[in-house]
Amino acid sequence: MTSDQKHSWSDIRELIHSRILDATYRPGDKLPRDEDLALELGCARTTVHRAMRSLAESGIVERRRKGGTIVCTDPVTRTRLDIPVTRLEVEMSGAVYAYHMVDCRHLLAPGSVTAVMGLVEREVMLNIKALHLSDGKPFIYEDRWISLETVPEILKVDLKRQNANEWLVRNRPYNRCSVQLYAEAALGEIAEQMLVAPGSALLHIERTTWLNDAPITHVRATTAPGYRLSTNS
Q1: Mutual orientation of helices 34-41 and 45-57 as an angle, nearest 10°?
Q2: What is the reported pLDDT for 81?
Q3: Half-sphere exposure of 120 (CA within 13 A, CB side)
Q4: In the chain, which end has fewer C-beta atoms inside a 10 angstrom radius, N or C?
């Protein structure tokens, strides 16, 4: 990499990552300052800063205020989890997709949703409960909260005809995502919607997306028995 070339932050990220992988920088090592790396690589300090932030978000390095950047001793192995369009999941399996909106209303988001979205105060959001079907059988039941501060245009969408999952994937890009997977007994409304006996263990997927620090949506998706989730690394 020479100083007369123009490099993006992703180029710089891959170079620094390669130095970590080949043990030029070892676990626990303190990396050169952003300013020094920028001078060495012939790029702007902001480009190095963006690359370092990406490495930190991936669990490869740790950024310490006034302490520099340290290669993680126990780096986190991460994988990419693409947000699927449920309709396509069903259709790609050869089944017929259908969608039913159970409820849609403006509600003050509960504290648990506010906290996971990183908000200081509770806000009125759009709460959507919807059932996705595969060949007429429950496939995914979702309880979704959408921030009206971040996505006010959702109010113009006919959510009885177009499901929020597909609309958000196609129209509201995000650059940060948090996902939790867990099994839990289906009770009450969930058991009723999924047509399973109360107490049946089902896979739940909780997912929150942001655009920078602005929360977009938080959804708790309950999946049918036998549901499979794929990832790409």
Answers
A1: 120
A2: 58
A3: 1
A4: C
User: Considering just the CA atoms, what is the radius of gyration of the chain in Å?
Assistant: 22
The full 3-state SS of 76-120, as one line of letters, equals CCCCECCCCCHHHHHHHCCCCEEEEEEEEEEEECCHHHHHHCCCC
Secondary structure of residue 139 in the 3-state scheme: strand
For the chain, give the longest Cα–Cα distance: 67
Choose the most confident range, by mean pLDDT, from 27-41, 73-87, 168-182: 27-41
Do you know the residue count of the chain? 233
> Could you tell me the pLDDT band of residue 80, with boundaries at 50, 70 and 90?
low
| pLDDT, tens only, 97-110 | 999 999 999 999 99
Which residues partner with 202 through β-bridges? 184
SS percent in the chain: helix, strand, coil, step 5:
30, 30, 40
Q: Is 180 left (phi over 0), alpha (psi -120 to 50) or beta?
A: beta
Mean pLDDT, the chain, whole residue set: 89
Residue 113 CA to residue 109 CA, distance in Å, equals: 6
